UniProtKB/TrEMBL annotation:
Matching InterPro entries: DNA-bd_dom_put_sf, MerR-type_HTH_dom
Any single Pfam family the record assigns to this protein: MerR_1
Source organism per UniProt: Streptomyces violaceoruber
Molecular function as annotated in GO: DNA binding
Domain of life: Bacteria
Ranges of residues in domain HTH merR-type: 19-87
Gene3D superfamilies in the record: 1.10.1660.10
SMART domains the UniProt entry points to: HTH_MERR (SM00422)
Any Gene Ontology biological process: regulation of DNA-templated transcription
Name under which the protein is recorded: MerR family transcriptional regulator
Taxonomic lineage: Bacteria, Bacillati, Actinomycetota, Actinomycetes, Kitasatosporales
């Protein structure tokens, strides 16, 4: 039984839900399963495993993999593409944290 307050359809909205098999993920990205395995070896994405041990990917992981594929298609070595995507992700997170801190420090607007 699902936890109270959740609906089975909530999984459809969850970017982190591991909904895609390796074959389906590779097909969606227009790449091979070997490409996805290489991304895992380079620690860009770590797929979850089904009870049977098969790799399962989330929508978030597929977006990350798609970005790496863009870079590889532009001639970047796959190892370098993985590092670039990791650094882009870290920069985005740092910018988000900065923005939150700025918002906390800024004075509240005067009320009318």
């Amino acid at each position: 039984m699902p936890p109270r307050g959740t609906r089975p359809t909530d999984k459809f909205d969850d970017d982190d839900y591991p909904a895609y098999t390796m074959g389906r993920a590779a097909e969606m990205l227009g790449t091979s399963p070997a490409f996805l395995r290489t991304l895992g070896e380079n620690r860009l994405i770590t797929p979850l495993r089904s009870d049977g041990g098969h790799r399962r990917y989330s929508r978030y992981q597929l977006r990350i993999a798609a970005r790496a594929r863009e870079l590889v298609d532009q001639g970047t070595k796959i190892e370098d593409a993985c590092r670039i995507v990791i650094l882009e992700d870290q920069l985005e997170e740092a910018q988000r944290i900065n923005e939150e801190l700025r918002a906390e420090r800024s004075p509240a607007p005067p009320s009318a």
